[in-house]
């Protein structure tokens, strides 16, 4: 509904993806001097994060991102993250990519749902960007790139009314509608119920600019207060403490959007929720989707701004597994519901012949091959390492 | 006290919109119709008194070739003197159907002429006033349709200017007494309320300014405007003058729906804080002041409520919808 939602969606999902990859890579960290040639090291981890972040915040890409446009479907948006996740030496097979995307989307759904005010989704975005800067703090050029995006956010959203933010929130919630994948870390923290729905607390501070419920004031024709009564609201709320900062730097106050993964907490999901979810999605797409072509055209234009440096030379891709063991990953791949058939879509000829060729090249790369693209060397020994976790 | 009654299952979950439940009570037929927006589709369900679902229908917004299905913003039954029409608003325009949703009798495409590329274009806010149906739009303009006693010759008769930001909700009531000339109120994203008198030409009587929060839902009862806001506040105003008579810190999150049981002056408010509250309105006969007291509060655990309606004129039963919930929850008082 709102035409301003894509930047918020993309940046926050990207932030969650980085949190998860960072945690996963740290969990497999081998000290540099002890590592074999085919093992993940601290240097590798930093490099993966650096590559993804520099791709995410590429100037051309961000410029396309901020153009007013409708939200893409979950499937379409997923292709962006597929490419982003492979912006570096890291390789994820489809099952791990599925799991990564599930975790990212459920985390952001939780954050959007629990935002006290619609405008606070901006604070969630700043939390993600602040953390991203932390990942690459030793690279001033990259930090500057992220800051420029923050500045664009402030310009694009800083002046919006509460009503416009409410529309943005409703649009985001439409994107996340009917997703009920259970996430272990949420279940453990009791922020998600076993039916996949999030807990909505009825206590704590009220949003900034909201009063604690309970007071009724009545006035006469002249505006003079004539009566004051109280009622029992049923919740257990207290006044808001202070407002988070919407500046480039500042105390955001809100914790939503900060990194909830630490090296000690394994990243798990239950995949039973996922198959149900895809079933309802496929039910929705039974009607022929005339959108697909137009949506992919928009997507291709967006991705055209995304510069992916392909791993060149003899260096193989490093495989990362989002599951605890390789067997689990294989099992997940087998039980993954049948994807809807992908078709190669012909991009309509545009005036800019060169740009069209570039777009066509990008779209050609979207042809799905179900073969997991991994190289043997790092992959096999990851298997051995997984068993130790 | 309210107790949970049997829920009515829905084919699709309710979308996170405001005023996302419409109820048509048909006591003569022992039937109640419910309308809920899912997203690109809206669902109509008919149920018997005990909540037993009887019939189901899905409606879609009219699409433009080659583009995705537009999202529906609201579905609402309009009771007119000689007929009942079901109105559906979307990002494309306004569709009107016979009350059971079986036949579309009228389609109006929205004109997005002077919208900037960043502006979302949609219709939202539906109410009947006499033999008119009024529908709000993204620009703030309110479209007034003249509806004949039967047939499809519905005509756009007027466009009301009064709002500068998107309309959120519209409410109306029969102007019964002579003094009670205000019979329609429109609300918008900035919190502004416009009070109107209907007629061959609608007249703007007064404006009630907002205070920063959108007015998400509005009701009109005996010349009293009840307005729910995005910051959880519920305010009561004298319609003819715009004077504030009551200010209630009612909810901890945005109010998403208000409804009235006009026979008894009961008002319900529902919000994203998971609560539904019932209030009793009345006019103090001595000084004419509007008074309000709280009757009851009900928590719908872990549910971001998006729609709520009374299901009978005495306000002893109500229905509630929640974001992501694929059922209509029902409550009745004990």
UniProtKB/TrEMBL annotation, chain A:
Pfam families: Oscp1
Domain of life of the source: Eukaryota
Cellular compartments per GO CC: cytoplasm; plasma membrane
Record-linked InterPro entries: OSCP1 (IPR019332)
Start and end residues of each stretch annotated as Disordered: 267-290
Coiled coil regions, renumbered to chain: none
Biased composition (Polar residues): 269-287
Protein name as annotated: Organic solute carrier partner 1
UniProt source species: Phyllostomus discolor
From TrEMBL, chain B:
A single Gene Ontology CC term: plasma membrane
WD repeat-containing protein 54 beta-propeller domain segment(s): 1-334
Presence of the UniProt keyword Transmembrane in the record: no
Keywords: Cell membrane, Cytoplasm, Fertilization, Membrane, Repeat, Ubl conjugation, WD repeat
Predominant cellular place of this UniProt entry's protein: membrane
SMART domains given in the database record: WD40 (SM00320)
Keyword Cell cycle: no
Function: Plays a role in the adhesion and fusion of the sperm-oocyte membrane through its interactions with IZUMO1 and IZUMO1R/JUNO. When cross-linked to form dimers and trimers, it has a regulatory effect on ERK signaling pathway activity in response to EGF stimulation. Colocalizes with the EGF receptor in WDR54-specific vesicle where it sustains the internalization and controls the degradation of the EGF receptor after EGF stimulation.
Quaternary structure and partners: Homodimer and homotrimer; forms tight forms of dimers and trimers. Interacts with IZUMO1 and IZUMO1R/JUNO.
Protein name in the entry: WD repeat-containing protein 54 isoform X4
């Amino acid at each position: 509904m709102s035409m301003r939602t894509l930047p918020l969606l993309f940046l926050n999902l990207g932030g969650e993806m980085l949190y998860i990859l960072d945690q996963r890579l740290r969990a497999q960290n081998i000290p540099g001097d002890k590592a074999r040639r085919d093992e993940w090291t601290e240097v590798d981890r930093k490099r993966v994060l650096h590559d993804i972040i520099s791709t995410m915040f590429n100037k051309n890409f961000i410029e396309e991102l901020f153009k007013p446009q409708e939200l893409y479907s979950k499937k379409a948006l997923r292709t962006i993250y597929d490419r982003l996740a492979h912006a570096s030496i890291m390789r994820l097979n489809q099952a791990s990519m599925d799991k990564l995307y599930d975790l990212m989307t459920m985390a952001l759904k939780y954050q959007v749902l629990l935002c006290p005010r619609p405008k606070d989704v901006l604070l969630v975005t700043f939390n993600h960007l602040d953390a991203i800067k932390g990942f690459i703090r030793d690279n001033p050029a990259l930090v500057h790139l992220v800051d420029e995006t923050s500045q664009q956010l402030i310009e694009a959203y800083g002046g919006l009314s509460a009503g416009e933010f409410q529309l943005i929130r409703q649009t985001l919630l439409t994107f996340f509608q009917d997703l009920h994948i259970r996430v272990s870390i949420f279940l453990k923290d009791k922020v998600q119920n076993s039916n996949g729905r999030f807990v909505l607390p009825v206590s704590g501070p009220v949003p900034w600019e909201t009063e604690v419920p309970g007071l009724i004031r009545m006035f006469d024709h002249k505006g003079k207060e004539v009566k004051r009564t109280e009622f029992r609201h049923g919740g257990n709320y207290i006044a808001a403490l202070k407002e988070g900062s919407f500046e480039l730097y500042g105390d955001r106050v809100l914790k939503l959007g900060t990194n909830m993964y630490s090296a000690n907490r394994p990243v798990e999901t239950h995949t039973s929720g996922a198959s149900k979810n895809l079933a309802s999605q496929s039910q929705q797409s039974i009607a022929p989707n005339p959108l697909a072509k137009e949506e992919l055209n928009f997507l291709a234009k967006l991705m055209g701004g995304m510069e992916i440096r392909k791993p060149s030379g003899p260096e193989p891709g490093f495989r990362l597994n989002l599951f605890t063991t390789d067997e689990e990953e294989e099992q997940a791949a087998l039980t993954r519901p049948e994807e809807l058939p992908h078709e190669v879509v012909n991009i309509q000829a545009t005036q800019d012949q060169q740009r069209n060729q570039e777009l066509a090249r990008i779209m050609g790369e979207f042809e799905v091959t179900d073969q997991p693209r991994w190289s043997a060397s790092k992959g096999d020994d990851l298997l051995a390492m997984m068993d130790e976790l | 006290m309210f107790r949970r009654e049997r829920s009515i299952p829905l084919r699709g979950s309710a979308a996170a919109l405001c005023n996302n439940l419409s109820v048509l009570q048909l006591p003569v037929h022992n039937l109640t119709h419910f309308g809920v927006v899912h997203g690109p589709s809206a669902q109509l369900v008919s149920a018997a008194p005990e909540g037993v679902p009887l019939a189901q229908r899905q409606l879609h917004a009219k699409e433009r070739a080659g583009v995705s299905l537009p999202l529906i913003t609201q579905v609402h039954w309009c009771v007119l003197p000689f007929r009942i029409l079901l109105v559906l608003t979307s990002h494309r325009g306004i569709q009107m159907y016979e009350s059971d949703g079986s036949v579309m009798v009228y389609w109006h495409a929205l004109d997005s002429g002077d919208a900037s590329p960043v502006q979302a274009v949609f219709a939202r806010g539906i109410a009947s006033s006499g033999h008119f149906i009024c529908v709000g739009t993204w620009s703030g303009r309110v479209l007034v349709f003249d509806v004949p006693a039967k047939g499809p010759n519905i005509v756009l008769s007027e466009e009301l200017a009064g709002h500068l930001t998107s309309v959120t909700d519209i409410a109306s009531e029969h102007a019964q007494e002579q003094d009670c000339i205000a019979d329609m109120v429109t609300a918008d994203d900035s919190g502004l309320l416009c009070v109107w008198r209907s007629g061959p030409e609608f007249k703007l009587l007064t404006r009630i300014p907002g205070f920063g929060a959108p007015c998400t839902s509005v009701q009109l009862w005996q010349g009293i405007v009840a307005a729910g806001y995005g910051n959880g506040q519920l305010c009561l105003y004298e319609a003819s003058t715009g004077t504030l008579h009551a200010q209630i810190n009612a909810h901890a999150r945005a109010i998403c729906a208000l409804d009235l049981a006009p026979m008894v002056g009961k008002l319900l408010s529902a919000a994203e804080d998971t609560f539904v509250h019932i209030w009793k309105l009345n006019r103090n006969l001595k000084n004419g002041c509007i008074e309000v007291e709280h009757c009851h509060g009900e928590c719908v655990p872990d549910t971001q409520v998006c729609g709520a309606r009374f299901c009978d004129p005495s306000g002893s039963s109500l229905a509630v919808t929640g974001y992501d919930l694929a059922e209509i929850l029902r409550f009745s008082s004990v």
